[in-house]
Structures are given as structure tokens and as C-alpha cells.
């Protein structure tokens, strides 16, 4: 028999629950005992929780819980699943309880050495993400379930102006995670068109009895990117902006979703972008402020807006009462 046949035979013999020595396995399969050792090592490497006990009554056994396990993952697959679970949970994955149960099962069907390796690799990976409240996770879960079931929801949404708009019917075609934010993409009953909504701005969500069918071949991800970038929007005015700075600072800048997709030319200490003019007069100056004097900008329009934004920020803080180191206002 081939090595794969021997491994499978040994696996089924151990799944019976009876302890078997290497000699007994070799005699049953008519193979050399060293072949048994090699097959046992290969099975352990593939994720099978085999336990070896020494002594007069020793031998090989397999964890009884393994009989209930439908799949076998090798060490690299187990590690990747644990890491993926960490990323998903920290990013706000809506079904965290089910994810915890899945990873617990993965650890349950591991022997002591495999479990130690999983804990070690899991503890070596961290994700920094803003804390999520219960309502946010609840909205994500309801949106995902509604998308999977084709069920219409009633949504109350805040456009960022402080006051939520009237409730609207919404058919969620999918949810998308993009650069630290979750978006719901689907048909908006109020506008009667496909739109995207940031989940952190949802103020209320209720299931309805309405049903919908997702358009065939519709991609929530492609739609969202198209809306965010709007490369082909009619009447859009563009500005070419060159930014000089240290390579590390420019690398960070290019990781931003807008700048990364607008990059047209990159040199070690220079990056050139094609940006929509309207963004240069709105939030781009405030995004660049944290870089301080680390950047040098070649764009009269953006430089002027940086000056205006800086002056506005300075005037804002000059109006505030100075505070001393004790947290109390200075008395003159």
C-alpha cells in the first residue's frame, strides 16, 4: 500500500478508541514498525490529535473528541484560521459568538502540543481597532442576516449632521469593510436607487416582512469603490498634486484609500496624485495637518486651503481660555 493508504488505515484503527502499539499496527498492516512511526508523524503534522503513552500498557490513542470532528486541518491551516478570527473579531465581525465557538472547537480537537502552538501563535498577533458598542455589532448582524435572507429592513440614518433622517426602507445587498469602516450597500426605498451607508451612522434598524432579490452578478464591493472614487463622474474637475517628503511619511499617505487610488507617479521622496478639486477644498487639508512640516506640497490651490484651514484652527484655539498644568484656568 502507499503511504497515504497506510496513514488512512492507521487513522481508522485509532478512531476505534483502543490503544495500539506501533508493533500491533505494523503487524495488522503488514508493514515495518519504522513505517508506522513515519505515518504517525505525518498524521500529527496534518492535525490529527494522536497521543503517545509510554510504559508496559502504553501505545497510541486518538482523542475521543476527534471522532466528532468533520475536518482535519494541518498546523499552518490552524494558525491561519486563528489569525483570521482575530482580525475578523477586532474589525467588528457581526457573528463573534459563532466565531468563538468555531475556534474553541479547533482547539478542542488538538493535542497538548498542538494546543500550545495555537495559543502561542494567537498571542503573537494583535489588531488595534476602535472599541465597538453593542448597537454597532447588532446592526451589522441584522444587516448581514437580512442580506443573506433577502429581507427588507427599516433604517434610520444620520448623514453626519446630528439629526437622523426619517426612517426608510432598505434592501441590503451586502456589507463591506473598507479602511476601518463598515458600509451597507443596497436599494434605498427613499431615493429609489442603489446607495451605500456607513453602519456607524445608523441610528435604528428594524426587520420587516418585505422581501427582495439581489440583482444577478451585483458586487457590493465594486459599487462602493465606484462611489468612493467616482473616476468617471461627469463634470468632475481634477487637480494634479505633487507632495514631497520622507519616504516613510509618503508611504503612510499612500495607504489612505483616496490617495492610494489617486497615485499617478511615485518616487522615493515624491508622490504625485490626481485628486478631485472639491476634495482639496474640503477634508484633504485636515487629513494632511497631522503630518505638520514633514510634507512640501506643489499645488497653489491646496497650499492656499492648507493656510486657510490652519488659520481657522488657530483662531479656534485662540478663543479658548488658557489652561495651566493643574487643569485650571490662568488668572491674570
TrEMBL record:
It comes from the Bacteria. Residues 139-206 form the WYL domain. Transmembrane segments: none annotated. SUPFAM superfamilies: Winged helix' DNA-binding domain. Residues 8-60 form the Helix-turn-helix type domain. This is WYL domain-containing protein.
Amino acid at each position: 500500500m502507499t503511504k497515504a493508504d497506510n496513514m488512512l488505515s492507521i487513522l481508522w484503527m485509532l478512531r476505534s478508541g483502543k490503544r495500539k502499539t506501533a508493533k500491533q499496527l505494523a503487524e495488522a498492516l503488514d508493514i515495518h514498525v519504522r513505517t508506522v512511526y513515519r505515518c504517525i508523524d505525518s498524521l500529527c503534522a496534518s492535525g490529527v490529535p494522536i497521543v503517545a503513552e509510554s510504559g508496559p500498557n502504553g501505545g497510541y490513542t486518538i482523542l475521543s473528541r476527534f471522532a466528532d470532528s468533520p475536518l482535519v486541518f494541518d498546523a499552518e491551516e490552524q494558525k491561519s484560521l486563528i489569525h483570521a478570527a482575530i482580525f475578523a473579531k477586532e474589525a467588528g465581525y457581526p457573528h463573534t459568538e459563532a466565531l468563538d465557538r468555531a475556534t474553541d472547537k479547533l482547539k478542542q480537537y488538538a493535542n497538548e502540543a498542538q494546543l500550545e502552538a495555537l495559543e502561542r501563535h494567537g498571542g503573537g498577533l494583535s489588531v488595534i481597532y476602535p472599541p465597538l458598542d453593542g448597537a454597532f455589532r447588532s446592526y451589522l448582524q441584522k444587516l448581514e442576516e437580512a442580506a443573506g435572507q433577502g429581507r427588507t429592513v427599516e433604517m434610520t440614518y444620520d448623514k453626519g449632521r446630528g439629526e437622523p433622517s426619517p426612517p426608510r426602507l432598505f434592501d441590503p445587498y451586502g456589507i463591506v469593510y473598507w479602511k476601518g469602516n463598515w458600509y451597507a450597500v443596497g436599494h434605498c426605498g427613499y431615493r429609489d436607487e442603489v446607495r451605500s451607508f456607513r453602519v456607524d451612522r445608523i441610528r435604528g434598524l428594524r426587520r420587516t416582512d418585505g422581501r427582495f432579490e439581489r440583482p444577478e452578478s451585483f458586487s457590493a464591493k465594486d459599487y462602493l469603490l465606484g462611489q468612493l472614487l467616482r473616476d468617471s463622474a461627469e463634470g468632475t474637475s481634477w487637480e494634479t498634486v505633487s507632495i514631497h517628503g520622507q519616504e516613510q511619511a509618503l508611504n503612510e499617505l499612500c495607504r489612505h484609500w483616496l490617495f492610494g487610488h489617486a497615485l499617478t507617479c511615485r518616487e522615493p521622496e515624491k508622490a504625485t496624485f490626481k485628486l478631485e478639486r472639491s476634495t482639496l477644498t474640503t477634508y484633504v487639508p485636515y487629513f494632511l495637518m497631522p503630518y505638520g512640516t514633514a510634507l512640501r506640497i506643489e499645488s497653489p490651490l491646496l497650499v492656499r486651503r492648507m493656510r486657510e484651514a490652519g488659520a481657522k484652527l488657530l483662531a479656534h484655539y485662540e478663543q479658548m481660555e488658557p489652561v495651566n498644568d493643574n487643569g485650571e484656568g490662568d488668572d491674570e
